[in-house]
Amino acid sequence: MKIILTHEVSGLGTAGDVVDVKDGYARNYLVPRGFAIRWTKGGEKDVAQIRRARKIHEIATIEQANEVKARLEGVKVRLAVRSGDAGRLFGSVTQADVASAIKAAGGPDVDKRRVELGAPIKTLGAHQVSVRLHADVVAKLGVEVIAA
Fold it and tell me: Fewer CB near the last or first residue (10 Å), C or N of the chain?
């Protein structure tokens, strides 16, 4: 089935790309979650609009990505969350939490979809987080989760 991606999907493409995927994957996962729309002739007009919106938010060159990476890696990110006695969190730290903590710490504005958590963060302490700035540039960031 041909679909038009509306968001970046890891391993598949970025917003505005027209890709061919299996029917079940599109029908049961991508379309219901809003990651894609079905391809139609009229949908081609939407592709241009999606690509324009993507260019506004996208880091265009590797040099820009390396500058943002240097700024990110210089920021100390501390995230205060509620936790129990043993250091386990009530819930977990999300990508949106990390993105807002980066902004609050004085770092650059990062889209939450670019933040990659290796595993769910459910304990207090120091954790490593990756931020994919460009196809070839990934910033490694230390996040310290503390009790609120």
Answer: C
